[in-house]
Request: fold
Amino acid sequence: MSKPRVIITRKWPEAAEAEAKKLFDVQLNKNDHPMTVAELQEALRTADAVCPTVSDTISAEVLSAQPLKCKILGNFGVGFNHIDLNAAKERGIIVTNTPDVLTDCTADIAMTLMLMVARRAGEGERHVRNREWTGWRPTHMMGTKVTGKTLGLIGMGRIARAMAHKAHHGFGMKIIFNDPYPPPKEIVDNLKAESRNTMEDVLQEADFVSLHCPGGKETYHLINKERLALMKPGAFLINSARGDVIDPKALINALKKGTIAGAGLDVYEGEPKVQEEFLTMNNVILFPHLGSASTETRVAMGMRAIENVNAYFNGEKPRDRVV
Ligand code: DGY
Reply:
């Protein structure tokens, strides 16, 4: 029997590409270029499955490709706000994602952003590299203590829980959160976490606010001028979720005016473009969407996408079906 034809839109770690080659008649993206609308449509016309990733926009236009051969989009990534799910559904295409395997690494990056921005680590590193350091002194580059402070989580899903675990059990932080679908009681108890009725309550009380909600229409510019104004002047905002959850203009103004003390960003509205003003600010840590970027996790993400696509072709229910 011939193998299903699968197109992988971007370069994957070697081990995951090797596994895909074993199971499928696979087309790889050897030079790792971002695929155009026309290329994505051609993929949908010619492959049984397409494996896109979070930087491919799978819009209604892309999904309008005719005639359609593709039966399943095995997304490489947990987030799926780049895929028009309604359009996929209308065209009868299954969509899967890769949860679980990236939880810890993404939480680690949120922790890294929090520690770096609080302790002025980016600024300090630049200071040394620029040969500006003149030596230790009691008042040099004083930052903000993290241990024992209050971490406020907006969204309490897998990644937020993992961050809460590290922050509470590793750094003695008090955890408060707001989520319309709170975690089971035993998880909350283990973290000695406290639920707050509204996001605004969390913003007002936390020393560090970390965002863990999905992207998309419902959370677009959730963190705006008014909500930033609720935060403490000494508080920090961490975003490892999706860029468009924050109104970047409002954040830039808040950072300039001292409404909040700093921000740690892994994601941006309109990325890979980063708002010019962030680049000049010392109280902002800027990462290039590194959340899941460890070799172990990226291999696991590829394997999970393969598992989903393979399950479909074996007549089984893919375990991470989104629609
Ligand atoms: C995802 O998977 O959605 C992340 O943003 C990239 O790992």
User: Anything to note?
Assistant: The pocket of (2R)-2,3-dihydroxypropanoic acid is lined by residues 54, 77-79, 102, 291-292 (CB under 6 Å). The radius of gyration is 21 Å. DSSP finds twelve helices and twelve strands in the chain. The longest strand covers residues 150-154.
